[in-house]
Design brief:
- The strands form three sheets. A four-stranded mixed β-sheet has the order 1-4-5-8, covered by helices on one side. It has a four-stranded antiparallel β-sheet with strand order 2-3-7-6, with no helix packed on it.
- Strand 4 and strand 5 form a beta hairpin.
- The N terminus is likely disordered.
- Helix 2 runs parallel beside helix 5, helix 5 runs antiparallel to helix 9 and helix 8 runs parallel beside helix 10.
- Helices cover 53% and strands 13% of the residues.
- It has twelve helices and ten strands.
- With 372 residues, the chain is an alpha+beta fold.
């Protein structure tokens, strides 16, 4: 057993549990399912008031930002706890894109300009998201980058950019490096996503000016590191989603009666829920392992992240499907939040790499040849 595996810590610290309590209380007050659904239907899912409180009031936006740049100097473990609670509430906030992916990219640049952006991000004064497709996976080839035609003027198109409509600054990976582009200077064409709580848009740049943050080699390395961290912490969002589905389904089958007895007492349903409980417990171990490996900069982090994504993605989808099916007695109602969780789970199963992609990475890391 390697030293990194021997020291793996899957438990939550007291500080992490306190952070969970604060975030959960905030979401209970400001992110009820009816509120989320109403905002999603309005076409403007992001809640600026909720975001300000989460980002600057609680300080969640700066968890991964070093203290010298105005952040909390925390680790991926604390960010994972926040994402668990955001997944539990299907919260429509740009945390994964803005406070994980964008932060990791800027940290990888290690320039004064990137540091200035990190200060703004940590304080909650600006929302910064990467102009990359949400489906971009770690270890996969990057899409054709926009071109820089001199003077920082960028031309090109990037599709399926998550949370672009909420951003103040877009991080654009161009052929000559990484650029910070004001979102107001780009043309954003909203798409119709499956998950209405995480809007997508096509970003079109037509000679749009940007500020260069890093050279091509540094930029690509920073993006690769961000995608790895994002995939690892997405597993925690999927864990929180699955836990909510399990908890709500158990409560429903306990309270709903048929033939003068709770439907949850039927043996077939007990078996389904017991299997789901085991799936969620295993997903918790996988997600915590990924967060801890990222926090400790373990050499096993790429393998641990791939395992977590390959497993947690499927568990979240199964939990949401079981939630919808075992609530079947209430009829097909748009008002019930179960469909929000199913759509987020399905969308997350494509985000930052599919299950098949991550299983392929696991096989590569284990030096297992693909079947002929």
């Amino acid at each position: 057993m390697t030293a990194s595996r021997a020291s793996l810590d899957l438990l939550y610290s007291d500080t992490e549990e306190e952070l969970r309590s604060v975030v959960r209380a905030l979401l209970a007050d400001h992110c009820a399912p009816a509120t989320v659904l109403a905002r999603a239907e309005s076409g403007r899912p992001h809640d600026p008031a909720l975001w300000r409180t989460l980002a600057s009031g609680i300080g969640a936006a700066g968890l991964l930002v070093p203290e010298k740049l105005g952040g909390a100097g925390a680790s991926h473990r604390e960010a994972a706890v926040v994402l668990e609670e955001l997944g539990r509430a299907v919260a429509p906030v740009p945390y994964l894109t803005g406070c994980v992916l964008a932060t990791e990219i800027l940290l990888g640049c290690d320039t004064a300009e990137a540091g200035d952006l990190l200060r703004e991000l940590a304080a909650g004064r600006q929302i910064c998201v990467p102009a990359l497709p949400l489906t971009q996976a770690p270890g996969a080839p990057l899409p054709r980058p926009p071109r820089e035609s001199g003077g920082g003027a960028l031309t090109g198109t990037v599709t399926s950019v998550a949370d672009a409509t909420a951003a103040d600054v877009l991080l654009v990976l161009a052929d000559t490096g990484l650029y910070a582009v004001p979102a107001a200077g780009a043309r954003l064409t909203p798409a119709v996503p499956l998950d209405l709580t995480r809007p997508l848009a096509t970003v079109t740049l037509d000679g749009t000016p940007g500020t260069r943050l890093a050279d091509p080699a540094t930029a690509r390395a920073a993006v690769a590191g961000a995608l790895l961290s994002g995939a690892g912490l997405l597993a925690s969002e999927q864990l929180g989603l699955a836990e909510w589905c399990l908890t709500e389904t158990v409560a429903h089958v306990r309270g709903r009666h048929q033939f003068n007895r709770p439907v949850g007492s039927f043996q077939a349903l007990k078996h389904r829920l017991a299997r789901l409980w085991l799936d969620v417990a295993s997903a918790r171990a996988a997600a915590r392992a990924a967060a801890d490996a990222l926090a400790t900069v373990s050499p096993d982090a790429p393998l641990t992240v791939a395992v977590a994504q390959a497993y947690c993605s499927g568990v979240a989808v199964r939990a949401a499907e079981e939630c919808v099916q075992l609530h079947g007695g209430i009829g097909m109602t748009w008002e019930h939040p179960a469909h929000l969780y199913l759509k987020r789970a399905k969308a997350d199963s494509l985000a930052l790499g599919t299950t098949g992609h991550h299983l392929g990475l696991v096989a590569d890391f284990a030096e297992l040849p693909a079947p002929a």
